[in-house]
Amino acid sequence: MSLSRRSILKGAAAGAVLTAAPMVMGANHGKPKVVVVGGGAGGATVARYLAKDSKGEIDVTLIEPTRTYYTCFFSNLYLGGFRTLDSIAHSYGKLASEYGINVVHDWAVGVDRDKKTVALAGGGAVPYDRLVLSPGIDFVDGAVPGWDIAAQNKMPHAYKAGSQTELLKAQVESMREGGVFVMVAPPNPYRCPPGPYERVSMVAHVLKAKNPKAKILIFDPKDKFSKQGLFQEGWEARYPGMVDWLDASFTGPLKEVRPDSMEVVVGGEVTKADVVNVIPAQKAGRIAELAGVTDEKGWAPVVPATMQSRMDENIHVLGDATNQGDMPKSGFSANSQAKVAANAIRGALTGSKVFPAKFSNTCWSLIDTDNGVKVGAAYEATPEKIAKTSGFISQTGEDAALRKQTYEESLGWYSGITADMFG
Amino acid sequence: MMAVTVRTIRALGLAILLTVTALAAPARAVELGDAKAGEQLFRVCKACHRVGNGAENAVGPHLNRIFGRVAGSIEGFRYSEGLVRAGADGLVWDADNLDIYLENPKNLVSKTRMNFAGMPDPADRSHVLAYLRAFSDKPSNIPEAAPTATATDHNLDPAILAIVGDPDYGEYLSGECLTCHQKSGANEGIPSITGWPKADFVVAMHAYKKELRPHPVMRMIAGRLSDEEIAGLAAYFEGLD
User: Which CATH code for domain B158-238?
Assistant: First the structure.
């Protein structure tokens, strides 16, 4: 709380010289105000649904620092050469022009829950009746000894899409012949459970063509991972001898990484690597912590039926940042939760009918060209948590036609969800 | 002694399995009828389909070895996109699926090119299937229906088709669909459901709900929608341009 107050004070001082703030403050027509922080799968979706369904009855402000949003989902496909970076880039133009959303490109740096305002880095404070936080993830400080954000150019995380993904791609493509790619995989829970392993598949796909003697080592604190059987079957079949998955119960724990000498120390052994992709342990995006809605583990607990914070009924939290129960941290989940939250918020602010919460998720992963797999589930809101009710997963040994269809379906989904987010 | 015991247990297990299968079978099993009667009934199919020695594709694909064939899989025949998709999803022409398809092709493939209103009488369908079966290679691979089995009616209860859906409720529920299916009707790997005739939508969703169609995501989504919710969604999507 003291942190957010300081931020607000700083913000107010700076606000006097910035033109953005008065415009933001001026968005008051006596209508209920919803402020959304974070323009990803959760935030963009909730903003769009609120604006669309309330038909002008609610003022919606979306605070998102970047003007171009690169989706984390499908960024692995860019690494593998299956997508261009441009094809995963989106702007907020339609949300502003077609939906009347007040899009503010700035950082939210504090929340005053008593005054119900959000402080901006560029100055000023935006008032809200309901606040939606959809800030994604941040990394836990010190989670990987030897690594911090200053080391991200030597050992990229590439777990927020954009320049980091470009960097990792360049490193993989210019790796010396027969070199070693090391992934330091994260502990649970983290964004996109199959993500690290899809990434390994995509890196292997590139190396198989350009650098077939190269090796990929995954140092993993977990003893199992999402779609494990499917990935391992795929690696064996498509990239034989290239990928070694090493879990900590076998190797001993990761002791440290040394960005200057490009070394990774696991158990008693020092591995010299050419490319190191460090995906640290994660927590809710910082603004959730600054707002005081996170728990001791760093995630924001929510009421499943409405996605309201358990700490503040005027704040809803969506997506990766939440501690909600059984749903994986995925763009699909955030999009699904956003619709539940939009319905609840609209009901609370305008008296519109509130329908029961329904959640679902599907995660597609690409193993190699035309070789897609998926896992998914349906969920319901119980008082304690978002609880899984049924699910499915691709099977090992599926024929090529089905895998190709699954991949094509994932392309369709990408078009669908990004249209659902950005209009 | 040990081996005998294990064999006995296995045999018992098998017996139990068979009993369960036999009990469960009437729900879907198709009793194959009279091939002679089937040959007569097949005349209506002949407008498009050939079967028998040297049969080739015509308006529709030839039907030799149809039992056990993956849907949409004859090389060189130009199927509808929906039929190819169903085949990739895992639709195989066994007796049950052929029965469901003959009853109303849209049960299994919404936008099939098979322009056939369907064969409502289960006995007629069983005759046609008995006739077609003679032209399939490995009748031994085709499961026999239990002796007491009767052909099942897969078509929707008219009362379900008659439900008038609330498009506003459908609009709310559509949020779940629109994560994948684009509202604009664009089909970029996932079929369009925008502007679909209500009845087709309802038939398709109930086919997923009853797990007649193979797609796992759609089975999951449809599986937890009530009849009214499906009607609401159908009303909403029909109304979209």
Answer: 1.10.760.10
**Chain A touched by B169 (CB under 8 Å):** yes
Chain B residues with CB inside 8 Å of A354's CB?
Answer: none
Question: HEC profile for B58-114?
Answer: CCCCCCCCCCCCECCCCCCCCCCHHHHHHHHHCCECCHHHHHHHHHCHHHCCCCCCC
One digit per residue, the tens of pLDDT, for chain B of length 241 reads: 444 444 444 444 444 444 444 444 344 456 678 899 999 999 999 999 999 989 999 999 999 999 989 999 999 999 999 999 999 999 999 989 999 999 999 999 999 999 999 999 999 999 999 999 888 865 544 555 443 344 456 788 899 999 999 998 999 999 999 999 999 999 989 999 999 999 999 999 999 999 999 999 999 999 999 999 999 999 999 999 8
Question: CA of A343, closest CA in chain B: separation in Å?
Answer: 8
The Cα of B127 is separated from the nearest Cα of chain A by a number of Å equal to: 33
Instruction: Write the CATH number of the domain with boundaries A142-279.
Output: 3.50.50.60
Of B184, B217, B223, the CB nearest to A376: B217
**Domain layout of chain A by residue ranges:** 2-138+283-353, 142-279
Q: Where are the domains of chain B?
A: 35-141, 158-238
Q: What are phi and psi of B144, to 5 degrees?
A: -75, 145
Q: Is B241 on the interface with A (CB under 8 A)?
A: no
Please write down the long-range contacts of B61-65, taking CB distance under 8 Å and 24 or more positions apart: B63/B132, B63/B135, B64/B135, B64/B136, B65/B135, B65/B136, B65/B137
Can you tell me whether residue B175 is helix, strand or coil? helix
Shared fold status for B35-141 and B158-238: yes
Of A376, A402, A412, the CB nearest to B190: A412
CATH no., domain A2-138+283-353: 3.50.50.60
* Domain boundaries B35-141, corresponding CATH code: 1.10.760.10
| Residue A332 touches chain B, beta carbons under 8 Å | yes
